[in-house]
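Re: the 126-residue chain
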Amino acid sequence: MKESIRTPLGKVRGLGAAKEGAHHFIGQRVSALALLFLVPWFLISLLLAVRGGYDSATDFIANPVNAVLILITVGGAIYHMRIGMQVVIEDYIARTSTKFILLILNTFVCVALFAAAGFAVLSVAT
């Protein structure tokens, strides 16, 4: 008979050692896959839009489809960054208080970055 090394509480809850399951792993991979398509579109579109000058760039962002895709790209990149930084903090910071502060700071910085990007895109688009 095969014996498990998991604790009885771990067997009941069905969670791994990190108590998060595969949530971060899947989120990191899905955001990377989305960015695989969004970032090249964003870079090529940005280069083409800037080539025509300021008016061309603002017209590009004023297009609702482009504005939404820009926000999705920026949001996906910030989400991907947040998960990656969270894993680094959890893995390499030993002190609990420092880890807690850095995790909160990581979340706040990411929310602030997305809010600033959203404000910038929406103010140009309107």
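The mean pLDDT is 88.
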